[in-house]
Fold these 3 entries.
Entry 1:
Amino acid sequence: MSMESVKGPASYFPSIEKRYGRPIEEWQQLVRDRLPAKHMDLVSMLKDEHGMGHGHANAIVAHVLSKQKG
């Protein structure tokens, strides 16, 4: 399986770690710590409190929420 097979929100994880300097698990935990909350409220938290771009914040939130439903 090549790296190109990674699709969806997880495909952003390497660039998020590189850009913001923290492991993806830390970002996911920040989101989990705020649950229950609305998707866009969580995205706004990452953007406003941590300076994350919208696409990256959305990818982390979408991934965490998809795991919570499972």
Entry 2:
Amino acid sequence: MSAGVPALTVLSVASEAVPLVKTGGLADVVGALPGALAAHGVAVTTLLPGYPSLLVQLEKPRAVHEWDNLLGESARLLAAKLGDHPLYVLDCPALFVRDGLPYADTAGKDWADNWRRFSALGRAAADIAGGAVRVRGKAQGFDLLHAHDWQAAMAAAYLRYAPFEGQAVPSVVTVHNIAFQGQFGAEIFGALGLPPWAWDMYGVEYYGGFGMLKAGLYCADAITTVSPTYAREIRTEAFGMGLEGLIAARGSAVHGILNGIDAAVWNPAADPSLAQPYTLRTLGKRAVNKRALEAEFGLAEDDGPLFVAITRLTWQKGMDVLAEAVDDLVAEGGRLAVLGSGDAAIEQGLQTAALRHPGRVAVRIGYDEPLSHRMQAGGDAILIPSRFEPCGLTQLYGLAYGCLPVVARTGGLADTVIDANPAALATGVATGVQFDGVDLDNLRAAISRTVALYRAPEEWKKVQKNAMKADFSWGASGAAYARLYRSLLA
């Protein structure tokens, strides 16, 4: 931060953040933002829901505020730490203390009252950011509120519409995945504590129902998405999921800012999960991790390429097409290790493929963070055939670990991977393989191109080094967020 530039205070509200709670990449981003922005004169306090698994991890939390009636429930505000940065936790047992996952029960069914749970989170965030909450007798206000995805988007709507003893500060809503919108029936509107005029197509109403993300996108002073290409894509019918008209109407208020990765966590030179740390200069040591990964998955050792996939096993991620392509991948001399969970049919398809190809294909259903690190370090290439991908983080981890990304040309995948076409190879800038159109033929062709590149060891090594040199830390992205915040305050 340059001399004379005042520090900004930002309340970042989300439904998850590493290391406390994670169901996807949203948590990585929210957990990394405070550190990324601190270098640019922005002090971030994060607000999270008080899930049981989160509460037990807090060290010496302090109750600093109470609500007697937060959308019909009593609640407390706890102060703690998220790493070295301040953290607030909304402790509301009636809404958040229950068995299951953050958004669903033990059977995987969404909680029927998710509208109330996350509207309460948004209302609390608006109260805190606007200065209506008193902490130790003093008003606790912020310069700006930053809400993430549908679970937090109502914070922007409450800042605009809800009466409270505070002031309406500027708000930013980040769309991490526009496919998830928080849509509910119109009958719940009366319980939201909003004035009647908020029920309008230019407000929280959405095709006759209540839309949480829609409300936030309409009310926010600025909208960000997690890559420039995705910011353009969601203006179109193919990617906008019904919100393309609103996104297009917001015009210059929509910004695409790439996610970064935490280089302290994703660093092959100092990763405690690995069998053998390595660097750009000691790439030869990487082979130890490949052998260890083969053993861990029960795969046969050979000199062919080892592909990995670390993802949700869903249609969006193109995993149905990967299940179809397994036989071709094996026929090309490749092997495949998969880590993830999702649609039962896709899980079964991949597991059946593993039975057809013992020693060549292996599947782990579930998620294991240390194993995901070992797969990035031991795999030769990571397959990411997503039909749409707002940003993606696994390709960034792959670049950092020299595990070459094989990606569909969409969203953040298009923005972060340079295709190993003849021109890029000739000029020495390629970092992976891209392909257009997520179908069996195109994925087969991408796998064949990857195998051919792998069979040219010197060329492969050059591309690996290019990948590891790429800088996708939070430096540039943190600066972009700080500029956006200051422009709103100006």
Entry 3:
Amino acid sequence: MIVMTPFVLLITFIVVQRIVELFVAKRNEIWMKQQGAVEFGEKHYKYMVLIHMMFFISLLTETLLLKREISPLWPVFLSLFALAQVVRIWVITSLGKFWNTKILVFANAKIVRKGPYRFLKHPNYMVVALELFAVPMLFSAYFTAILFTVLNIMILMIRIPIEEKALKTLTEYDDTFRDCHRFIPKIVK
């Protein structure tokens, strides 16, 4: 009999969430490509997917094999995770059919500047960074937290410039986000 520990419950929630997101992303990708969207960054995408898959393997291995305990700071890390989920939903609903895990851009599209995009350029990447750190830290999986934070930074150093170049080439991205930072929220005008 499987005991539904906090770890199993959280991992199950995240895996189910990711599967649902992949279906939404695929549906949006099909629609966007039918409407003429151009895809960028195909070469690095497989590595990004690999990093996210390896994150789960590392987290499961470190937590279960090394018998990691829930962190004494679990309320902080759980709060960070919960905040990330709220922002994730805000991101997806703000972008609607334009939300995707791939870089798909319409020529001359109006850049979305609502929801969390009013405050920063890349809120979805901030959400992922928070999760890759907070979830392992919640279960004292320090190796996973550090390793995948570093790997995420490395892949974003490739992905974000490709995404921004695509948006600058095909849209008025620079004009739209002139007063906005990549990751530091703009709170006051």
